[in-house]
Amino acid sequence: MSTPRLEITEQYCKGCSICVEFCPTNVLEMDGFLVKVVRPDACIGCMQCELRCPDFAIKVHKD
Fold first, then answer.
1. How many domains does the chain have?
2. pTM metric for this prediction
């Protein structure tokens, strides 16, 4: 199975960092007021970032 790919829509991100807090494998970090994918290979596809984002700024692709 391939590693899931995260897509961040920066214009939707309000910098709340909820996704960062819920990620169990520390894939995401805040870069100022925007979320950034820093460890893409660590993503386990749990979808917590996408499910918890109140602004629909993150999409998890399980290709």
1. 1
2. 0.90
